[in-house]
Amino acid sequence: MTDEEIVTLVSHPRTQEEGFRQLVVKYQKRLYSLVRGRVSSHEDADDILQNTFIKIFRHIKGYEGRSELFTWMYRIACNEVINYQKSTSRIKTVELENHDTRPAEAYLNTDNLAASLEMVVTGLPERQQMVFRMRYFDELSYKQMAEMLQLTEGALKASFHHAVKKIEEEFRAKQIL
């Protein structure tokens, strides 16, 4: 089923439920993969994905078709991840301050380069983190990111460049590279 057919079904009250079911079937795996790549647990990814689909359902009538349907949903999912990370970052900070006495080096000096990269990326400013993930992990073009985030390609390139430099610096400082 095409995106246009799905949007048409969702837009009509009598076919709305079937249209939304088709939308979930078509995009659930892609959106889950996107979300799961940004959070540490399956349960958190499921919660975020559920919130994403709720927002999609509530706002699908506002979808104007100026971008691809997945691009529009991708943006909603990214915003939900950011909201989740903001809400949990306060909790994690308190937990680390109160309970964890290991130095940061204990986390970075692991054999698992992917885990080390994730830790460093999580410490980047929000925009750099999002741009790095979209470019590096999701392999999106700057043009696609510009459309999703409503930023210029130049601003995105600069954010990605700064993110890469910070990651390299952190890896060098922790002797990971």
TrEMBL record:
The keyword NADP does not apply. Residues 23-90 form the RNA polymerase sigma-70 region domain. The keyword Hydrolase does not apply. It comes from the Bacteria. Coiled coil: none annotated. InterPro entries: RNA_pol_sigma-70-like, RNA_pol_sigma-70_dom, RNA_pol_sigma70_r2, RNA_pol_sigma70_r4_t2, RNA_pol_sigma_r2, RNA_pol_sigma_r3/r4-like, WH-like_DNA-bd_sf. Residues 117-167 form the RNA polymerase sigma factor 70 region 4 type domain. Keywords: Sigma factor, Transcription, Transcription regulation. SUPFAM superfamilies: Sigma2 domain of RNA polymerase sigma factors (SSF88946), Sigma3 and sigma4 domains of RNA polymerase sigma factors (SSF88659). Pfam families: Sigma70_r2 (PF04542), Sigma70_r4_2 (PF08281). One of its GO terms (molecular function) is DNA binding. One of its GO terms (biological process) is DNA-templated transcription initiation. Belongs to the sigma-70 factor family. ECF subfamily. This is RNA polymerase sigma factor. It comes from Candidatus Opimibacter skivensis.
